[in-house]
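[Q] Does anyone have a clean structure-token version of this?
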Amino acid sequence: MPISSKINRGILSLPGATAASKATAERLLKTDEESHHCYFRPAGLHNHLSHHVLTAYDLGAPASLLEAIYDKEAKIQRPIDLNENGVVPEGTPNPGDINDENWVKWLGNAKAYQALVAFFSGKISDMGARKAVEQYFFSSAPNENGAHMLTRLCNGALHPFIQVGFGLEFDLEIEVAAGLAQAAVHGVNDDQIHPSLERFIDANIVLNAELPHKGRQPRTGSSILYLLRQIYDSPELVPVLPYEPDALLSKRRRDLGATRLAELHRILGQFDPGDTHEALAGRVEELIFAVTLLTFGSGKPNRKPRLDFFLMHLLTSSLFLPSYLKYFPSIKHQKALFRRYLQEWGEVLMLRGRPRIDATLVMSYTDNPIPPSRPPPLAHPESLAANGRNPWPAMIEDALHAPDSHTLKSLRALLYGATRYGTLAKGEIIGAWGPDGKETHPGISQVDGSIFVRAAGVLMDILGWVTHGQQPGNWDRSALGWDDAWKLEDREL
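[A] Here you go.
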């Protein structure tokens, strides 16, 4: 039986969706998943078409805009069967060739993507999406003997995690099948630490849990901001030198070496997600604040903001944590997922040169961003004064037309943060204070829920208010944690 391509409500589900836009989105998504490979280039660059369509749909895009998004991005995709000039690459399995006995054989092989989509689609048809994801990411066998499916889920700059996350959020079976297949074709590194599916406990966790704390703290273990503080303070985690501005992620990862990775995992080993749904919900909040601070607070005072392309993926992926928690009520599975996600979070941080957050810098940005041009005066001119209107509608409407899907996905993540945590006051974010009663980071106690709208304003200013005459901007790929990355003058960007 074919699996479903029907869309349910997204996590925000803003007004604007209609029967026409829903039908259009479902048709485009089905065509994309049936026609296109998960890599639009052999080098492993990911197909974001479905991400863009679903994000725009959740934010109220009309059918005509969804069609325009699809038409533009479909042009650069590769066919799912990798057929080039009538020739299928040697060693490519056909749909139906992959089964329960041999599926592990095809892990890490991008040529098997189409056949893996067929395999996982069959599993979803037989057992449903929830059980299929539980079986292939959270049960023991798919995480043993080199399979490591949970590790693969968060590899590739978290793209498989995002792909599955969209499927879970919208209850979209074809998206889940594509995400399972995408995770399967990603590789694993020999030195990766694979999370245990068993109960996690550590002497440091017990010690930290017994210490008196100031302010809001996680229910068990160290806060993520306190773990970040330890990463910054560790002499073993000094960024690799010399700085290479054009190094690929694969080389940066090799250059980390065993010593740095061991130290990173020692620090992250203090992380205990918790044993209750309330505790895990708190961890989602922590991660969303942490990735927002890293993406928008790792700049330099009196310099043009720069937004790191890979830190941004931490931001956009964090939006799916609530959907994973909702879909999989097992505390054991949720804890395993959090540990794996945090490992990837830490490794991305190191691959970008250990950029340091500047909480004061983030809070210096305006909390009422406006487009570069204003409309004529309204019936109530005072609404045009500073802080006189809600800045979100203008940002959403403009970002819907941004050519890069990452701009819209980032704005949606920030909008969720503002919706969920926007009313938190200064000093109320989890982990602002360490076990010693001091701020975990300078100025962090002054951060409040307005960080999300401040960050959104920076996003729009850097990536461009494209419906207000600005050219689209660019993400930064220089790896901002290295001081030498800042030797480039702002006018050269």
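[Q] Thanks! Anything notable?
[A] Residues 363 and 451 are 6 Å apart (CA to CA).
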